[in-house]
Amino acid sequence: MTRNVRWLLIVLLCTQVVLSAPCAAGVQPDLEQLVKNVVLPDDQLSSLALDMHLRLPESPVHLLCRLRFVASDSYSLQIFDARDETPVMVIADQMTMINDPFAEKLTIIASSGVVFELLQQGEQVTANFSFNQPVDGVIKNRVDLDFKKLFAQVDKDLQLQTAENGRLNFSGQTVRGNRCLASFNASAPLPLQSLQLFIAETAEPVLEFSLLQTGSADYPVAEFPLEGLQQSGLAAAPAHLNGFLDTMGVMTSVLKAVFARAAIHEPSIREKVGDMLKLVSPDWEKMQQNDSQRREKLRELFPLR
Fold first, then answer.
1. Taking a C-beta distance cutoff of 8 angstroms, is the pair 77, 63 a contact?
2. What's the predicted TM-score (pTM) here?
3. How do residues 238-259 score in pLDDT, each as one tens digit?
4. What tens digit of pLDDT does each residue of 283-294 get?
5. How far apart are alpha carbons 271 and 285 in whole angstroms?
6. Which of 49, 38, 55, 40 is nearest to 211 (CA)?
7. Are the C-beta atoms of 37 and 148 separated by less than 8 Å?
8. The CA-based dihedral angle spanning residues 294, 225, 212, 60, taken in that order and rounded to the nearest 10 degrees
9. Which residues are bridge partners to 213 per DSSP?
10. Band of pLDDT at residue 265, cut at 50, 70 and 90
């Protein structure tokens, strides 16, 4: 059985975005033709490029998740702090790097695969991403994007209009006033081109797919710069994981790193973050020093481009 950890931060981001309700009949037939799920490695896609933004309302937390796939079995997943493009977690060439300002060294995990999911769970849409450990010596990657269930939850003020560029623009709301905006290219193998989900009254989407492309050679899979990392002078330590609990512990450190970086740059939220993460006498100055020593070199090694 494949092992992965669901990242609770994303559940918090998306909990109130959609509700269970049937889609209005007028637009539903068109959406059924336009909205397609993506399941890898099952789907016969030559490539997939995906950029997803996650924003925590009333918080400086803003992540950019960049997924790349090229057939038959090449994957990479990069998680950046979108405010300054510093990588927090990178999975490429079956290796994982984790940048945790709580730790004195970067964490390196060998033999790891990509997990990326967008799933409907009850009345919640959750975006989950992690790394997979080998099972019986085999590294497995998994991508599961259930767009059909997501669109099935938007049931008010549905509109589907043709734009000047020939694309179709969709908009709709839930009964709570949460909004969904999307654009489609009906002739593309994956018609959905962009998607934004807003919590009521927020100016920016909490969940945004700014790029969704398949069949293009313009979005190569990222490479892991192992030699460059070794020559960079950055301290790094291999992690030896022994099962699910160790994996969960590492992913918890990623969650903590996200909020820690926000607090490093926004001192006004440090007390709140410290309480939320149950930190005992956190040394914010030391964390800021660790972060400052790494971020420029990490941006060079793992560029957002």
1. no
2. 0.88
3. 987 776 656 676 777 788 888 8
4. 999 999 989 999
5. 14
6. 49
7. yes
8. -10
9. 49
10. confident
